[in-house]
C-alpha cells in the first residue's frame, strides 16, 4: 500500500491516457496524487482532478511543461511546500510524432521528441532527487521513481517513429544509470516498457500506418494485434498496475529494471 505517500504523475491530463490510469491506481493504493500536464491539457487536468476528488481521492493538479526546468522546479517546490513531502515520481509525459523513416523525419520532430521524452524525464528526475533524499529512511527506502519507457526502448519495432525509439532507449539507459547511482541512498529507479496500449497515441499510429500502406486503421490494428501473444493491446489500467507495483513496498528490492508490459509482444531488433 501507498498510504499517505505523495505521488506526482506527469502527462496525466488525457482522460483515456496512461497517466490518468496511473493516478487512479496509485490513489486506490492510498497515495495523495498530483496530476501534471502542459497548458493545452489544463481542462483535462482539472476534470481529472475533480473526478478523482468526487470519488473521495486526495488529488491536486498543476500545469507543468516537463521541457521547461524552471516550471518543473516551481511545481515540485509547491508540491513539497503544500503537501509536506514527495515520495513517488512517475515520468509518463511523452510524445510519439514524426516519421519512422530516417530520411523522411524532420529534424524539428526528432528534437521535439527528445526534448519531451528524454529531457523531460531528466529534468523531473534531477529536480526531485533532493526532495526524495530529504525523506526519512524507512527500511532504507526514501522514494521511488518510475519512468514510462516503451517496448521500443528494448528493441526497434517496424513503423514506430524513429525518434520515439531513440528517446525510449535513452530513457531506459538513464533509468539504469540513476538506479546505480542512488541505490545506496534509498531511492529506486525503474522503467515500465509498455507494448501496444489502447490510447489516442495508438490510434494516431494506426492512422499514419493506414495512410502509408493504403489500408484501413482497423486493418492496421489487426496486423499489430497478430504480433501480440495475448492478441490485443493493453488497457491503460493494466500498465498502471505495474507502475503501482514498482512504486510500492512490494518492489523494495527492485531497482534498475526495465520491465516489459506487452502481452507477450516481443521486443524488436
Gross morphology: globular
Strand order of the largest sheet: 3-2-1-4-5-6-7
Backbone CA Rg? 18 Å
> In percent, how much strand structure appears in the residues?
5-15%
Q: Based on DSSP secondary structure assignment, what is the total number of beta strands? A: 7
Task: Please give the largest β-sheet.
Answer: 7 strands, parallel
Q: Structural class of the secondary elements?
A: alpha/beta
> How many H/I helical runs?
8
| H/E element order | EHEHEHEHEHEHHHE
Annotate the secondary structure layout.
Blueprint: E1 6-9, H1 18-28, E2 32-37, H2 42-54, E3 59-63, H3 69-83, E4 88-91, H4 107-133, E5 143-148, H5 162-182, E6 187-194, H6 200-213, H7 217-225, H8 236-247, E7 258-261
Parallel strand pairs: 1-2, 1-4, 2-3, 4-5, 5-6, 6-7
Helix pairs in contact: 1-8, 3-4, 4-5, 6-7
What does this structure look like?
- There is one protein chain.
- The chain has helices at residues 18-28, 42-54, 69-83, 107-133, 162-182, 200-213, 217-225, 236-247; strands spanning 6-9, 32-37, 59-63, 88-91, 143-148, 187-194, 258-261.
- The chain is of the alpha/beta class.
- The chain contains eight helices and seven strands; from the N terminus they run βαβαβαβαβαβαααβ.
- Strand 5 (143-148), helix 5 (162-182) and strand 6 (187-194) form a beta-alpha-beta unit.
- It has a seven-stranded parallel beta sheet with strand order 3-2-1-4-5-6-7, with helices on both faces.
